[in-house]
Design brief:
- The chain has helices at about 10-30, 35-40, 55-65, 100-115, 130-160, 165-190, 195-225, 230-265, 270-314, and strands at about 35, 40-50, 70-80, 80-95, 125-130, 195.
- By secondary structure, the chain is α+β, with helices and mostly antiparallel strands.
- It folds into 2 domains: about 10-35 and about 135-314, Multidrug efflux transporter AcrB transmembrane fold (Up-down Bundle); about 40-130, ACT domain (Alpha-Beta Plaits, 2-Layer Sandwich).
- The strands form 2 sheets. The protein has a 4-stranded antiparallel beta sheet. The chain has a two-stranded parallel ribbon with strand order 1-6.
- The longest helix has about 45 residues, at about 270-314.
């Protein structure tokens, strides 16, 4: 296999990542970020309809009646009891400092019943989350990511002490943050509600991406011992190329499964699986990219600057 000179074009690869992240930031300021009621607190009302309801109209009607922020979404799924029958659900997320009272919930149901084709005797579900519990859930999710990051730093620092493990740990964390930020960018771009699914997907992506990065660091450590007459650039570039096929094959194998899951969820209108699998697809691709083109080149930059500083101090 012809060697790819990753180090020679490392700044171009970093620029590509930066452009994608900037696009996500722009959409964040344009569209904002919509928190699921699991994080923001509020009330979720699910009402079964005979046909697909107009979510924009539902939002406007309920917002006008309650004076509160409302997000409406239509969901479709196949009826397991009858293959040809589709179940339509209108989901209303009402974010508020206090959950809806019984009167307010009844008012919402009455508005939807009057303006849409609600199925008589159909399913109706109501879930309430106190804002304090929602904030606590969000905080616990962020804590999980921080704890995972700290443990990664400690492990990689110890595991790769031969190649200045702390530098390897910090650059690995930067690469993982790159993957999570790019995955996060999906939410303002497509205006998905940010909920517990994102935390689950983020931790899964971190695990896969770190595994690929550690494989490359292993090669750098081995090659640093075997290629004593080579420059750091040659060692890192050789290590990346030696891991190239293995890293791509591992990620593609996983992607086949996750893409299949997403297609299955799309065909059967299972929104919960779609909301989980799509961020995973994006995160796995971002993780593949960062493992090959971000982590090791950043480690090289760190080591070269440290060596220059050491020479100056001497």
């Amino acid at each position: 296999m012809k060697q790819i000179n990753v180090i020679e074009h490392q700044n171009k690869y970093l620029l590509i990542s930066l452009v994608v992240i900037v696009i996500g930031i722009v959409f964040y300021f344009v569209n904002g970020i919509q928190l699921d009621i699991q994080f923001s607190g509020g009330t979720r009302i699910m009402i079964e309809t005979n046909s697909e309801a107009d979510s924009n109209q539902a939002e406007a009607l309920v917002e006008e009646a309650l004076g509160k922020s409302v997000t409406a979404q239509t969901q479709k799924t196949n009826n397991p009891g009858a293959e040809d029958e589709i179940i339509y659900m209108l989901r209303l997320d009402i974010a508020s400092e206090e959950t809806l009272t019984a009167e307010e919930r009844d008012l919402v149901v009455d508005i939807i019943t009057e303006n849409f084709d609600v199925k008589e005797g159909g399913n109706q579900e109501m879930t309430s989350v106190e804002p304090s519990i929602g904030r606590e859930t969000l905080l616990n999710g962020l804590k999980a990511v921080v704890i995972a990051s700290v443990l990664i730093i400690l492990y990689v620092t110890w595991r790769f002490s031969a190649i200045h493990g702390f530098a390897a740990a910090i650059t690995a964390i930067i690469a993982l943050l790159h993957d999570v930020v790019i995955t996060f960018a999906l939410y303002p771009v497509f205006q998905f509600p940010l909920g517990e699914v994102f935390i689950t997907a983020a931790l899964t992506i971190i695990g896969y991406s770190l595994n690929d990065t550690i494989v490359i660091y292993d090669r750098v450590r081995e090659n640093a011992r075997l290629m004593k007459k080579s420059t750091l650039e040659e060692i890192v570039n050789t290590s990346i190329n030696q891991s190239f096929t293995r890293t791509i094959n591992t990620t593609v194998t996983t992607l086949i499964t996750v893409v299949t899951l997403y297609i299955f969820a799309s065909l059967n209108n299972i929104s919960s699986l779609q909301e989980f699998s799509l961020p995973l697809i994006v995160g796995l691709i971002a993780g593949l990219y960062s493992s090959l083109f971000i982590a090791s080149p950043l480690w090289l930059k760190w080591r070269k600057r440290a060596m220059v500083k050491k020479l100056k101090d001497a």
